[in-house]
Each structure stands twice: as C-alpha cells, then as structure tokens.
Amino acid sequence: MSIALEITLIVTVVTVGIAIVGFLGFKISRSTREMGTDAEQATFQALHHMSAAVPHVAEGLNESSAGKAAKALRRLLSCQVLVISDLSAILGSDSNQSLGPGLLAELQASAMDAIAATKTQVNKLPGTTLVSSPLIVGGQPVGAVSAVHARAGAGFVRAVSEVATFVSAQLSLAELDVSRAQLLEAQVRALRAQISPHFIYNSLNAIASFINTDPARARELVIEFADFTRYSFRRRGDFTTLAEELEAIDRYLLLEKARFGDRIRVSLQIAPEVLNIQIPFLALQPLVENAVRHGLEAKPGGGLISITATDEGQHASIQVEDDGAGMDPEKLARVLAGTTTNLHVGLRNVDVRLRQIYGPGHGLLIDTAEGAGTLITLRIPKFVPSPEMSPTP
C-alpha cells in the first residue's frame, strides 16, 4: 500500500473524529454561545470512547474485537443499542435494553441492506429508529455498524455514518499492518532463497573436496554448514542480536574460506556494548555475501572484508567494507530502486526492510566506485519498533 494511501487513511481518521466530536459537542453546547465546561467534557468523553475502540477495531472483524468495540462506540453515540456485523452475521453488540430475537433480526436485516446498498440505511420502527452504515475496506463492504435510537434525527444518522467511516479507516490500517508484516516475511524468504542455491551448492562442493584428503576438516565444515543453515532458515522472530548474526557470518566465512583459502581475509572490530542490540534478522549476512560474490570473487588475489560496529548513543553504527571490484554508482542506484533484477538482490532487500522497519532515513548508505571497493553503513536504532516485530525468545 502506498504512502499516499496511508496519509489518506490518517486524514480520514482525523476528519471522522472531528465530525463525531462536533456532533456530540453540538448536543451539549447548543444552548449556549460559548464553549463551556460541559462542552469540553463532552469533547474529552468523545475522544476517550474513540480511543477505547481503536485497539479492538485494529484486531479486525471478529466476535471478540467487535463486542469490545461496540461497547465504546455505543457510548460514543449515546444510543440504546449498537451492533457490529460482518457480511453474514452480527459479531458483537452492546445495549442498555433487552435485545429480543425480533430486534436482532431487524438489526441484521438493516445491516444487510446497508452492505448491499453500500450506503447508510434508516429504518423507522414503532417508537424507535434503526440506522445502519456499511464498513468499507479497499473499496469493498466487509460489514456494518448498526445503532438503535428512540429519537434519531439527521444529526444522529450522520454520526452513525461517520462512526462507520472511522471504523473502516481503522480496519484499513489494520490490514495495512498485516500486509506490511507479510511483505517483510516475503523479503526474508527471498533472502533465504538467495542464500540456498548459490551458497549451498558451493559449500557442499568444498566439503566434498576434503572428504578424502582431510576427513576431520570435512566433518568440521559439515557442522558449520548445518549450524549456518539452521540459523538462516529458522522461523522464530524477525529480529536477532548482533552477536548471533555475527556468529552466522563467521560460519559463512569459514565455509567460503574452504573454497577460496587465503584469498579472503577478514577483520572484525566490534564494540562489546553493541553485541546485544536487536537488528533485523539477516540484515548483515547478505551484505557480507555480496562482498564475497560481487567484490572479492571477481578480484584476482581476493581481498579484505572489514566488519566494524560502534556505539553512537541512540544508534549503533555497523559497517561492512571490502576492497574488491566495487560497482558503478549509477548501476547501484538502479539496484536499490528495483529496476535491475537478479543482481545484488540482497542489497535491495536489506535496504527496503530497514526503511520499512525504522523509517525512510535508515536505509543502507553505500559508498562505492568501480575498482575502489564498497563500504556499506547501517545505523540501527537501539529499540524494537513494534510488538508484532519483536524478537521471539
């Protein structure tokens, strides 16, 4: 989902909030020309009920979340009954009166009418009024909000419509969060897929070459290979510690040295205080693999890979540098923009993941030129952005 759509959703939420607060504030303040204490209290109450509904609506449409959200939304509208339905049934309700089967049937029918028409429906019953407004996500109806009020006027009908718009916006944001998490998982899978065919084939060939000449070395490499692949294909958590990622990189480089021997030299300078910071899983290993495959492998005589990590207060600065072949900066720009495929895929995936997790200012900083090697810098904030992205113990 685009940034423009995210901004549109946020603006919608704010606009709906203002409309609802205005409706309730008008009910309190219509007898006076000035905003007094009663009006201020009504405003705060409206904001409180909206805030109370948000975390439940963000869970999506289900019986548990709908029941809890309905309680806050009924109080927001000051109505007798409020129900939330999906496309087939009432999921949750809140009421200050008895809900008989007849009224429930009327509410469900009203909700289905609003969903079918994709606009608010008003049904007059003896002594009461039913107002139902559809929930629209991605241009499609997914459910409805229905309310019962003894004396529903035009203002109440508008308020129910605005509440439905507010809930729809929250459901859209929840869907965006799910899509974002799925995208990040897909990018990690892509990195794993990148590792598997190229690296596994070469590692197994290197191990096979030692079976007859140096069986002990072959056994050692098999263990390192197993530990590395176990780490790379693990399923727990989207984050790891810098120390764990460095251990995986050490195993990766041991296996590559089995192929290249002394052509690959490694320098590590890691500040102890940053070893336990949380970093995105597979954020560094693809950069080291890129240095080997596209930097040193093409350079006669190999070269040096330097990995440094320093403490910078609220951030940790991590650098991966090689003195290999380097690359054309214009070509690199196309890689990071995604207009070049099947080349340096790991660089783009890591760059995109960092920007999605920490914000647009936290992508990869790459300094390179043909024949001049490559220096890649990451600045990792010392926090995990959100609970759903937290590392699993």
What would you note in describing this structure?
- β9 and β10 form a beta hairpin.
- The protein has 2 domains: 175 residues, Beta-Lactamase, CATH 3.30.450.40; 176 residues, Heat Shock Protein 90, CATH 3.30.565.10.
- The chain is elongated and about 95 Å long.
- The chain has a 5-stranded antiparallel sheet, with helices on both faces. A 5-stranded mixed sheet has the order 7-9-10-12-11, covered by helices on one side.
- The chain is an alpha+beta fold and 393 residues long.
- It contains 10 helices and 12 strands.
- The N terminus and C terminus are likely disordered.
Topology:
Layout: H1 3-29, H2 37-57, H3 63-77, E1 81-85, E2 90-95, H4 101-117, E3 121-125, E4 128-137, E5 140-149, H5 154-211, H6 215-232, E6 239-241, H7 242-260, E7 264-270, E8 278-280, H8 285-296, E9 303-312, E10 315-322, H9 329-337, H10 345-358, E11 365-368, E12 374-381
Parallel strand pairs: 7-9
Antiparallel strand pairs: 1-2, 1-5, 3-4, 4-5, 6-8, 9-10, 10-12, 11-12
Helix pairs in contact: 1-2, 1-5, 2-3, 5-6, 5-7, 5-10, 6-7, 7-8
Q: What's the number of extended β-strand segments?
A: 12
What is the fourth-level CATH superfamily of the largest domain?
Histidine kinase-like ATPase, C-terminal domain
Helix content: 40-55%
Using the CA coordinates, give the radius of gyration: 29 Å
State the distance separating the first and last CA atoms. Answer: 31 Å
For the biggest sheet, the summary is:
5 strands, antiparallel
